Amino acid sequence: MNQRIAPMAGTGQDHGAQAATVRLTAAQALVRYLAAQRVASEDGSGRTEPLFGGVFAIFGHGNVAGIGEALYQHRHELPTLRAHNEQAMAHSAIAYAKAHFRRRMMAVTTSIGPGATNLVTAAALAHVNRLPVLLLPGDIFVSREPDPVLQQLEDTHDGNVSVNDALKPVSRYFDRIVHPAQLLTALPRALRVLTDAALCGPVTLALPQDVQAMAWDFPASFFTPRLVTFHAPAPVAAELDAALTQLQRAKRPLIVAGGGVLYARATPALKALATARGIPVAETQAGKGSLAWDDPLNVGAIGVTGSPAANALARDADCVLAVGTRLQDFTTGSNSLFAQAHVIGVNANGFDALKHNGLAVQADARLTLAALDGELAAWCADANWTARARRLADDWRASVAQLTQAQAAPAARSGLPYDADVIGAVQRSANRSDTEDIVVCAAGTLPAELHKLWRAGQPGAYHVEYGYSCMGYEIAGGLGAKLARPEREVIVMVGDGSYLMMNSEIATSVMLGAKLIVVVLDNRGYGCINRLQQACGGAPFNNLFEDCAQGPLGAPRIDFASHARSLGAQAEHVANITELEAALQRARAASRTYLISIDTDPARTTEEGGWWWEVAVPEVSPRANVREARERYDAQVAARGGRAPHETTHAAPATPSSERSEDEPGHEERT
């Protein structure tokens, strides 16, 4: 997606004004430039609003005196928000951009040392998910006169290296500003990357602290308010023709809708094509919500965490139209799910379009879907295929309704509810006359259950970060989504493991008045990886608290509600689904962030759906369970060229804990 930046009408700039200069520090110029960027309002009213919704900042050595002072000067045009963890505030900024479908974004500034390196994980997350965020870490002195300064890393073979160089491989564009004049080229380049779908991702501008404070005479025109418009490239004729030829040969086509559908705002075009041509639509994690959950041709989630409807159709499809997706292994079942189909990849990013040995159409999703529909003439999918898709979709929706009704679910061995029970309670608690909830999640078992079971009625209702599957994103991401969509209820669903990794932005949400509902599912450890460990033949080890090394006092019993209250939230612990439903009503009525914790079963998952996922199993082991798992693995890999066994390695438990095999005494594995 190309970008054109034009001065806004009515600015009164003439040739003489264009030649004028204004003396500013580099930090002041940077902040003033960011504050001047505008975008058309999303409501179609013709109004404009700031491109940057604000700057998250944790001040420290290397940014408080320079960019901190500049942000204070422009605090009304470009709000500064104080957070509690640098990685978390970057997650919040990324979530803000995701909730705005990449049309608005935020910046983040940190100190020069640990504050800067705390950004690396968040930058990788933004890179993988193709989401814009502007990172502004402080840096060491360009003059080097006070070397080594506090927090400076000294490299013995390159004097130009600082810790910020760790951000280079996880940034889509990186620059170190060594003179104020450099901003005249660096900032437009940064903005291009942030607003171009083919390039989109994190941008890092490292800001040496002496350069931040250095003054220079900038052209006044550089700070003229500018309207950033987004150019959506149309498909190239030759690529579109090749896609049309391939699609018209198909009798059993399937559309896989990825995040690019949402970012291109292509839902109307997707629905029009699918409905007119009778093509079923399956959704990736990033693309969930591309069609309403009750659309007759929405067959649900695809892949390792997919529905039985979507995966059955993917297995039998002769053509897959992959729109706005990277086709990562969870979507393709480690390249086993639709290996027999011809793939057409539609993506603004050419690298992402060229996946699965398919035809590539490097173009905007909305324009491409509309062009395909307009050129397909009388072609439709085989009527029997469309009828089968509708039937499977209806059957799956009925299954979802049953799976999320806790009262109808079989009792778990532990007597505790599991994730589907909690998901059902959360969805039943919504007032359907309200704007639809946004559910936020990222890692563990919950993304699998939500991908299958959450009913997303509109684009943006499902906000799950699964490209990087980053534990700790959840609460920070919920904050960013709430800042972007304050009118909607944002519900963060998070496991105890992710909560313990990063929870400090609960305090930020209270401070900013950005109310969240946080539902903590406490299974007392890393339940998802515990099941994967056993599915690969391993003994339960170092995941659930009960299987971890412990001191004489044993594992802690964590009171999540008390902890959340200590951060300023309202909170309570509930004992069952009935209590959860009542607590959710209190949470919805509350005026501040409200946390509810509930104990859940670490072993049980939804058995329906799913697909094989390749996780390498050791070739040799003294454990019989591992050797058996290796045999299954070898068979699955061998079958990948055709149809892999319909087995979910990701979430399925191995032998129940009461039937665990112990290491065989006296056995030696010979190689």
TrEMBL record:
Its EC number is 3.7.1.22. Residues 240-372 form the Thiamine pyrophosphate enzyme central domain. InterPro entries: DHS-like_NAD/FAD-binding_dom, Myo_inos_IolD, THDP-binding, Thiamin_PyroP_enz_cen_dom, Thiamin_PyroP_enz_TPP-bd_dom, TPP-bd_CS, TPP_enz, TPP_enzyme_TPP-bd. The lineage of its organism: Bacteria, Pseudomonadati, Pseudomonadota, Betaproteobacteria, Burkholderiales. The keyword Nuclease does not apply. Residues 64-152 form the Thiamine pyrophosphate enzyme N-terminal TPP-binding domain. It is an enzyme of class 3 (hydrolase). PANTHER family: 3D-(3,5_4)-TRIHYDROXYCYCLOHEXANE-1,2-DIONE HYDROLASE, THIAMINE PYROPHOSPHATE ENZYMES. It comes from the Bacteria. GO terms for biological process: inositol catabolic process; isoleucine biosynthetic process; L-valine biosynthetic process. Keywords: Hydrolase, Thiamine pyrophosphate. The gene is iolD. PROSITE patterns: TPP_ENZYMES. Pfam families: TPP_enzyme_C (PF02775), TPP_enzyme_M (PF00205), TPP_enzyme_N (PF02776). This is 3D-(3,5/4)-trihydroxycyclohexane-1,2-dione acylhydrolase (Decyclizing). Residues 443-597 form the Thiamine pyrophosphate enzyme TPP-binding domain. GO terms for molecular function: 3D-(3,5/4)-trihydroxycyclohexane-1,2-dione hydrolase activity; acetolactate synthase activity; flavin adenine dinucleotide binding; magnesium ion binding; thiamine pyrophosphate binding. GO terms for cellular component: acetolactate synthase complex. It comes from Paraburkholderia acidisoli. NCBIfam families: myo_inos_iolD. Residues 625-671 are annotated as: Disordered. Belongs to the TPP enzyme family. Residues 625-634, 659-671 have a biased composition (Basic and acidic residues). The keyword Magnesium does not apply.
